[in-house]
C-alpha cells in the first residue's frame, strides 16, 4: 500500500509541475491560524464521531461545494462507536490538512481535503473538524437524510443530498428503514472492517474468475436457491460476529466432490459434492468450513505469504516498473491472476484447515446442540472424502479445495474428539513500546482441544515423531513403519496485527497465556513472520494440556522486538 502511494505521489508531482503548481492550503489558511486551531484542539480530549456508513471517506457541505475527510485505511478506524481521542498534531500539505490523533493506545490520521477547484479555508477545516468530533462546536443535524421523492435515505456526510424541501431527517438508519426508506447504494457500500480490503476484494474476483474458468457455473434455480438458503442459515448462526463480507454461494459443474472458498465471500460447491450429501447438516458442515476460510482471511493471508517470496517480489517489481506505460496496469492485473491460479492449486495449511474444522463444528453446534449429531455428520462427510481419495487404493494427487485438505485420517480422528470452544469475547492484548504506542495486537477468539489416537506416517531418519506429526512431512524411501500415538492437543487461534512501526520482519514463535493463575506456554509451530502493517492468522499449540481453557485470559506475553509490556484490552 505504501509503495503504491509513493508511485502515485510521484506521478501527481510530475503532473503538477507540467501544468503549473497549484496553490498550497496555506494561501487561504495562514499558518498562524492553523497553529491557533492546533492549540485549541490539543487543549482537550474530543469524541470521535462514528460514521453512519462504513466508508473511510466522508463529505461535509462547505461554501462552494463539499470538503472531505478520510481515515487511514486500517481495521481500527473509523471507529464503530464514539471514542475519546486526543489531537497530536495539525499539519498541512499541498491542498490538504492532516490531523493526527490518538485514541487509547492507538494512533491514526485523518486527511482533510478541499472542494474541487480551490484550497481549504479556516472555516472549511473547522466545519470538517466539527463533523469528525461530535463535541467540537456542535452543529445539530440528523445522521441520515431521507429523500421524500425517491424514498431513498443517504448518509448525512455525503455529497449528493436531496434539495432542502425534499429532505426528512432521521437519527438512525433503523428509523429510516422503519419509515419505509431504502439505503442509497452509493452511501452505504458494503465494506468489511478489515485492513487492505481493496487487495482482498481484487484477489477474490481473480480467484473466483479462475474457478469459473475451470468449472462451468450451474444455473438451476431451485438448487442454487437451496445452497444459498443453507449458507445464509450458517451465517445467521455464526459463533462470533461476522466481518461484514457480502457472500455468494454458487454451484459449479464437476463430478469431483469439492468446494472452494475465495477471498471476500465467494463460495463454490461442485455438483459431485452436492450429489454425495445425504443430509442438510452435511451441507451446513461444508459451507461452515468454507465460510471460516473467508472470515479468517486464509486466502488473503496465503496470498500475502506467497507475495513475499523472492520470485513473486521480482514479478511485482517488473509490474510496478512498467506501471507508467499504457500496459502497466494490465501487467499487474495479469500477475495477480497468475498468483490467484497458483493459490487455488496450493491449498491451505494444516493450521488453516484445523481452524476451519473448529469453526465448522461450532457452527453446527449453534444450529443443533447435539454434540453426537454434529460430530457424526462432519465425520461422515470426511469419510466420504477419504473414500473418494482412495480410488484403486491410491490417494488422488491434488491440492485443490475441500476434498484434498491434508491429513484426512487425522481430521477424521479430530472430528470425533474435537471440543471446539469460543471465549465470551475475543481475548485481545496489545504490545506497547517504551512510548506507549502499540506495535502488535494479538486477538484470540477460539480454541480447540482434542484427545485422540492418530496414525503417524513413518519417520524419516533423524526426525522426531512430533516433527513428523505437526510439520506434515510426506513419505520417502527412508521412512519407518507408521505408528499410533496419543495426541493431547490444545490450539488457540489468533489474529495478529502489526503496526507500521514494526521494523522489518518479526518472527512470532510462541506465547504465554495466564488463565485462572496457571501459565500455559503455546508454540507457533509454523514460526509465522509478521511484517509492518500486517494482518496474520496464527495458531498456538500445546500438546501437554489435559483440558481446554475455561474462563478469561488475564495476561499474555510474547517476545517481539521493541515491545516492553503487554496489556489486555477491556471491551
General form: globular
Helix residue percentage:
25-40%
Average pLDDT rating: 80
**Cα-to-Cα separation, first versus last residue:** 30 Å
Rg over CA atoms: 26 Å
Q: Kindly state the number of beta strands.
A: 23
Number of helices: 15
Structural category: alpha+beta
Given as residue ranges, the uncertain stretches (5+ residues, pLDDT < 50) are 1-26, 318-329, 392-400, 460-477
Q: What strand line-up does the widest sheet have?
A: 1-4-5-6-3-2
State the gist of this model.
The protein is of the alpha+beta class. The protein has 15 helices and 23 strands.
Question: How would you describe what is shown here?
Answer:
Helices cover 35% and strands 27% of the residues. It has 571 residues and is α+β, with helices and mostly antiparallel strands. The strands form six sheets. Strands 1-4-5-6-3-2 form a six-stranded antiparallel beta sheet.
Map the helices and strands:
Layout: H1 2-19, H2 31-42, E1 45-48, E2 57-62, E3 65-71, E4 83-93, E5 96-103, E6 106-113, H3 122-132, E7 144-147, E8 152-155, E9 167-170, H4 173-178, E10 182-183, H5 197-214, H6 221-236, E11 248-252, E12 259-262, E13 266-270, H7 271-276, H8 280-295, H9 298-307, H10 310-321, H11 328-346, H12 350-367, H13 371-388, H14 408-417, E14 419-432, E15 438-456, H15 465-471, E16 483-498, E17 506-507, E18 510-515, E19 518-523, E20 529-530, E21 535-542, E22 553-557, E23 565-568
Parallel strand pairs: 8-10, 11-13
Antiparallel strand pairs: 1-4, 2-3, 3-6, 4-5, 5-6, 7-8, 7-9, 12-13, 14-15, 14-23, 15-16, 16-21, 17-20, 18-19, 18-22
